[in-house]
Structures
1.
Amino acid sequence: MSDRLGGALARKPLHFIFVLDVSGSMMRGGRIQALNNAITEVLPHLKDEARANPHAELLVRVLAFANEPQWIIEAPTPVDQIHWKRLEAVPRGFTELGSALQTLSGALDHLDESNSAFPPAIILVSDGRPTQSSGVTFAEGLQALLNNRWGATAVRLALGVGRDADMHSLRRFIGDEDVPLLRADNPEQLVEYIVWASKAASKVASRPVVGPGSGVTAVPPSPIGDPIWSTLG
Amino acid sequence: MTDRPDADPVWTTLSGTTIGSVHIRDELPIQDAVLTWSDQAQGHAVVAVADGHGHKFHFRSDTGAALAVISAVEELRRILPDLRAADEAARERVARAGAAIVETWTAKVEHHLTANPYSPAEDELGASADPLRAYGSTILAAAAAGDVMAFLQIGDGDSVLVASDGTAARPLPEDPDLDGLHTSSLCQPRPLDALRVAVVDADADQVALVFLCTDGFGRSRVDADGWWRQTGEQLLGFARTHGLGWVREQLPEWLAEPALIGGDDTTMALLVRNDVAGIVRPDLADTVPVPE
């Protein structure tokens, strides 16, 4: 008989899912470059978070969306195994966020059949108003996500990019009024906000939830630099 | 098989608790609590564990958990003389004790709150609007009066009894509201809706030991469905092969690993009967004086 009581232990997965807008408007003002830079910069921070969370196996997925959703990293991947390939914005691409959320909810169906995983963390970045050329409205996509057990319990954070970001839709995506909704107006802010969101999400997602509210307590960073994306449009 | 004298069995209590790695990381106190009591002469014993919620809305849950185990031991001690048979009357008595635990816990929380009012910053979280919420905790308890055993529980965690052949069973009904992400709680509206109780005839069911543990012990097990059976079988095997002294020495190590890997506080309490064949039983009774 082994002297370890209760059998083998395994770190529970903590799924980190980035949902990134690559619509045509992301080509303006260097936004897509800034988004790529932000993801590149956030990876070392996520590695630090993984080290700071010995109880959780931090796994990353990336879903991009314009005219349609497309998995950039579909399989849950340990953060130290990610080699980021720069995303390209889709010229004249729409903002099919509803379809993206529907795809996301379908992926969450297979997340973890047991009760042992942490709630996932979902970080949405978008610079425009959701379109519905695919026939799926934002409301339908969001409802599909919230109808999913993991989608409903996920730590959901959102970042708007520039003045055309639909902050109302992003607030609906977050759901919890106590969670800050940030809008980046320049590349430096986008990097800082994504890093903040990633850290805040990992802290919260790895704690048990009791009652309502996401438990996000991290204070967001103050805006830095000039608001170039708001002034340029 | 047991080797029973005519006298009522005597129950030995063991317990341990370890802070979770997430709480160490976040510089939070341990939010589990455990309390045991036994009276060797009477053959009576009570064990209780509690798991404070730890979420930002439950910022005094370490105190809530401590008050929960004190309340449980107090109230279960009161009813031990009434537990003469594992029948419906005993089950109803345990259910009334569950209601008394909720009442006692609420009174203790209110007393603590009077002495330690919420600060303006805590009030911003809505603490005064729902004054019990900050103290939110689960409670699991088991009591033995000779061959009659009582179990009660509100919230997550595991209550397991182990027969003398090593077979483990869960004496309490399932709580349908437990989904792995949320837990029932002493601080919820109508906590008695989530109260689960059971009485067991330890003689008829050949009960050798009982263990209670907070969810930190089991949540990170690879065998999510069978870990508790394995734990029960192992505990009985270890008690027989190494003695209870060794089991007590091992408890901190057994709790430390899930607390590190799972991240959550991890607590276990055991009731072990003295007359199960093969168990080496030095005098290990953990007695904690409880105000009458």
2.
Amino acid sequence: MPAPATYPVRTEEDLLTVRHAVRAATIEVGFGLVDQTRVVTAASELARNAYVHGGGGTVTLDYPREPSGRRGLRLTVKDEGPGIADLEAALTDGFTTGSGLGHGLGGARRLMDEFTVRTGPGEGTVVVVTRWAVR
Amino acid sequence: MNGHRSPGVPILRLGDVLVTGLLNELDDRTAIAFTEELTERISAEGARGVLIDISRLEVIDSFVARTLMELTTVARLLGARVIVAGMRPPVAITLVELGIELVGVETALNPEQGLAALGWRQAEQPLEGARRGTAR
């Protein structure tokens, strides 16, 4: 597996770069087309959140492996923005403080197998999501 | 790799229907430029239908979804009906899981069915030249 790699999210072009990198990583891990699409879409939502709400940040890709040998792809999306004041509300469909549809966070959670968020006012936001390959 | 920065997504006219297609991905600036150009073309050419082929589009996130919904609403205000055709199955599955319904956006399995729904029919007879070529 490739070494972990971190991509900046500072411009709209960076969003495209992140999508390309994530697509390549899903192929590397051996995901089928539907899983590739799920993970790239989740990455697109989370990277956009970091760009729009967090004032920019980073996306790190790494390749965890379960003791059983099952391979996965993990995205860690970080920003140093104001943080999410009401996480429960932010995870609800239709909630948005920006220009999206308000499906980003909750949608990304549904598209991935594992999902954690660390956030708080003044602390920024870190979202970690993982999808495991089907054996 | 980013040489596709120009917003020039080709928009063709077939009678009173405009036909266009999105490429494998849609960045924000292209999405906005595309919406504006399509709106202008609908108005300038009196289009009554718009077919958007998305069979090459590999990702529809909430931003692209919102663009398609807004485009459809704007077109409807101008009197044109939009049909989005050719969504890839993995994209459809992902959209549903994401929780996006593409409210108000009409879809078709492929461009042919989309054009048929817009009332645009393929000529039943082969063209003159084609018929001559295949005679006997």
